[in-house]
Write a sequence for this structure.
RNA sequence: GGCCCCGUCGUCUAGUCAGGUCCAGGACACCAGGUUUUCAUCCUGGUAACAGGGGUUCAAAUCCCCUCGGGGUCACCA
């Protein structure tokens, strides 16, 4: 119907990529891809004190990981740059100047101390309204000029109209109306002459031709201020959509990094959740396709996503659901993909060379085959393979008990001596057939066979299929462990009998 | 405290705009059973919610009002 949409994600680089921010970025990106629009990344880095280059990088790399690479942004450039607010100061100042000329702004000589005092008194008196009381709003212009000329410190405030109703047409919340009397005369230029966030945002969204501002609900009250700035500047406002907030997993408050480690996107990468699972999960927090669809690929999301089905209510982070989804994604992967997922974790744990040799590759393949159905995130593979790489097995009590059973010694001895040497350790199914026929020949139940062998090989009672374990260890190491287990079993029966 | 947003199973949600097909559906989690050499997967079944109170209506999870609860925001931060 009209020009393609232009959306943006505008984080401030203060340390990490917030999971809620990641979702905001995803929703924006989804819409841009779906409608052939443009996804812009803009750094809101006007606060020099708090911003670091490391934090910028964290945001860039986080978006890369999620596959939400901007069409325009600090790294990729574009026709509406620069895309970092720190580089756009002249632009803001220019518009601020026009606002001064038009009389929309007035100088305010209230000092920080004065304002703090005012606020303290308002709180003490339980005043109905907090905030600036407009004490310099009607200062005589000549007097103002005189004080400025005298070098008196001052900020510039926006003369917010009185007695008007400001209506925000929000795609998710519908029409939200607020009285302009509830909005104080906001500072647009600080005493040091720098512009304030709300001014910068309006100018940027306008200059960058943003058509839809999709952001967290925490910006809802800012929007009314911004609406007034749009009016003062004589610009048309974009369409707004305020997303419900993501709350901490156990309820109270929005996610903060201090209280909730899961607020940081990096955590998910570190724990080894497949990206596509994270994307799927994020999309479903606050949005749903219908009453049953849970698993959706990125392509399906691009096709079906829509703001009209975004919920207005805040949501807790459903961590259990991520674990489940992640497991589903891993199970749907090819063996090669699972290997690739495990690889960095095993390398980091020192269990795999960065450039693995053939034997290592083979072992990785076998581990992947054995654990693919069991693991819910790739990072689990480290502790799950402790038994494989342990120089000395750390036996669980139950496993030890299994080695102490009456038939344990003869089973181990038989498997070690008669079966293992000629069974095909490359082929778990074949090994199982061999073992079964051997056990049957002895009139042994398969369970009686399996338990002591598993105990000797892994020191545990639970884990991958027994013959996957043999395959992972290889013939030689399996034999060594079986022999060691046999010794224990004999010791146990000798001591016990 | 002012202003604003929100309120369906423990959790994520469908249903609310266009009232009946909803003694409320799905998923995760949980519990029970089955398959399996263990675990996991897989299969079957189960527990579990319309925040409360008033209206309107033949009929309300759906519309209106009040209460309660949760959240956001009130910086010369962004």
């Amino acid at each position: 119907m009209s020009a393609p949409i232009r959306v943006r994600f505008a984080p401030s680089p203060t340390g990490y990529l917030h999971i809620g921010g990641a979702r905001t970025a995803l929703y924006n990106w989804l819409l841009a891809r779906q409608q052939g629009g443009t996804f812009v990344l803009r750094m809101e880095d006007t606060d020099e004190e708090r911003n670091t280059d490391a934090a910028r990088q964290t945001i860039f790399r986080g978006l890369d990981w999620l596959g939400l690479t901007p069409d325009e942004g600090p790294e990729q450039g574009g026709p509406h740059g620069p895309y970092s607010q720190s580089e756009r100061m002249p632009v803001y100042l220019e518009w601020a100047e026009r606002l001064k000329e038009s009389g929309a702004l007035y100088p305010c000589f209230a000092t920080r101390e004065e304002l703090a005092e005012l606020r303290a008194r308002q709180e003490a008196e339980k005043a109905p309204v907090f905030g600036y009381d407009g004490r310099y709003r009607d200062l005589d212009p000549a007097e103002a000029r005189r004080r400025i000329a005298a070098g008196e410190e001052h900020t510039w405030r926006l003369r917010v109209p009185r007695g008007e109703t400001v209506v925000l047409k929000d795609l998710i919340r519908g029409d939200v109306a607020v009285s302009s009397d509830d909005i104080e005369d906001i500072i647009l230029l600080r005493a040091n002459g720098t512009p304030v966030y709300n001014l910068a945002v309006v100018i940027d969204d306008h200059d960058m031709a943003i058509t839809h501002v999709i952001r967290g609900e925490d910006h809802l009250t800012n929007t009314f201020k911004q609406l007034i700035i749009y009016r003062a500047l004589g610009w048309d406002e974009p369409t707004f959509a305020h997303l419900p907030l993501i709350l901490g997993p156990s309820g109270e408050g929005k996610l903060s990094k201090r209280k909730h480690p899961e607020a940081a996107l990096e955590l998910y990468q570190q724990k080894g959740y497949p990206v596509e699972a994270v994307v799927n999960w994020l999309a479903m927090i606050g949005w749903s396709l219908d009453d049953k669809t849970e698993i959706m690929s990125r392509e399906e999301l691009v096709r079906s996503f829509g703001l009209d089905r975004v919920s207005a209510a805040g949501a807790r982070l459903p961590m259990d659901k991520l674990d489940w989804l992640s497991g589903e994604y891993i199970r749907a992967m090819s063996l090669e993909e699972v290997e690739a997922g495990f690889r960095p974790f095993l390398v980091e744990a020192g269990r795999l060379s960065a450039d693995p040799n053939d034997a290592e590759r083979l072992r990785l393949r076998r581990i992947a085959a054995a654990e693919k159905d069991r693991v819910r995130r790739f990072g689990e593979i480290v502790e799950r393979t402790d038994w494989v790489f342990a120089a000395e097995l750390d036996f669980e009590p139950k496993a030890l008990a299994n080695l102490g059973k009456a038939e344990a010694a003869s089973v181990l001895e038989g498997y070690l001596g008669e079966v293992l040497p000629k069974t095909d350790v490359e082929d778990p199914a074949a090994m199982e057939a061999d073992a079964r026929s051997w056990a049957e020949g002895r009139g042994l139940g398969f369970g009686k066979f399996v338990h002591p062998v598993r105990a000797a090989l892994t020191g545990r009672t639970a884990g991958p299929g027994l013959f996957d374990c043999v395959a992972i260890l290889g013939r030689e190491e399996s034999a060594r462990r079986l022999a060691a287990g046999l010794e224990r079993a004999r010791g146990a029966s000798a001591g016990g009998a």
User: Anything to note?
Assistant: Residues 105 and 114 of chain A are 20 Å apart (CA to CA). Chain A has a mean pLDDT of 93. DSSP finds 20 helices and twelve strands in chain A.
